[in-house]
Amino acid sequence: MSSFLIVDDGCRIPLDSIEWTFTTSQGPGGQHANRSNTRAIARLPISAIEGLRGDQRAKMIEQYGEELLISVDETRSQHRNREIALDRLKAKVAGARVVVKQRRKSKPSRGAKERRLKAKRQRSAVKSSRRRPSYDD
Which domains does the chain have, with CATH numbers? Predict the structure, then answer.
């Protein structure tokens, strides 16, 4: 039996379905940078994720394609980069499981419209009182 990365209740990722690749990090060289394979690249087929509904799986495939690809080279430790990659995988799958609430159209109430127009009239009166008086006599 393989171990799993638990996303939330009812959703999990089999760890043996994640394909790992380790390469050298990008950026300027140094004593450590160009010699160590510390960048962690995780590839996860979306079909391997257990507990996704059909619409959630379709949403993930639309966003990321058939395969979820995470690349991390933030730290000098391969082990730590791998942990960060697993956390990001977990976050992306959890994000796909969130149900987006449908927005309902609304309109301002009559009282809100009246308050807005009253404030506009008051502001207009303040500005007009600042003008020079006209002498049209």
Answer: 4-97 (3.30.160.20)
